[in-house]
Amino acid sequence: MKTKAAIASIMAAVAVGALAACTPRGTDAPAPAEAPADVWVRKKVVLYLPDRVMKERVEIADLSPYLTAVDEAVAAAARAQPTQEGASGMMLLMVKPGERSRAWIVTGEPAMQPQIIEALTGAAKAVPAPSVRQGPILVGLQFDVWGGGAQPEGAVAPIPRDWYAHFSEDGGVLDDDFMARVWPD
């Protein structure tokens, strides 16, 4: 058995050597072109509300296709934008009863250009939102765009800077009251 494995290993080495011998010497063959990096890469999904609350408010069978559609729409919008310096961050998606949605983007430094943020959040908002009940949901899509950059500082689940003004001096929680202050009806 060991002999067969040794013979197979030798044959593989001979085959590789034979192929290498077929490559013309002295020519500078162009290196194969590298595939361009994806403009928008979703890294992971982050639930900003407890699992129990999410399950009460939205069907996973509805949420998953919605997140996939948002990811595809935002990727297409990113490809349509002029290339900029790479960035990494979180796209927050809030969905309220009545199939209403809104998106925010939080990035590390350097920040994305405002017109690009507007294009990407607009693409996310254009995706039909799933039906939710009993209150809003908040989900984040962690991403790299144009190769990525520094992650936002602080929390694993970052929020936009202007949201901090809605917390009391003692802090706060991401609950229905907080989300109503962030995005009033």
Rounded mean pLDDT is 82
Roughly what fraction of the amino acids lie in strands?
15-25%
Low-confidence stretches: 1-36
User: Whole-Å distance between the termini?
Assistant: 74 Å
- The chain-level structural class is alpha+beta
Biggest sheet details: 4 strands, antiparallel
Q: How many beta-strand segments?
A: 4
Rg over C-alpha atoms, rounded to the nearest angstrom: 24 Å
Q: What is the count of DSSP helices, taking H or I runs of 4+ residues?
A: 5
Helix share bin: 25-40%
User: How is the largest sheet built, in terms of strand order?
Assistant: 1-4-2-3
Order of helices and strands: HEHHEEHEH
How would the global form be characterised? globular
In short:
The chain is an alpha+beta fold and 185 residues long. It has helices at residues 2-21, 51-57, 60-79, 114-126, 176-182; strands at 40-47, 87-96, 100-107, 137-145. It has five helices and four strands.
Give an overview in words:
The protein has 5 helices and 4 strands; from the N terminus they run H-E-H-H-E-E-H-E-H. By secondary structure, it is α+β, with helices and mostly antiparallel strands. It starts with a helix and ends with a helix. Mean pLDDT is 82; it is low at 1-36.
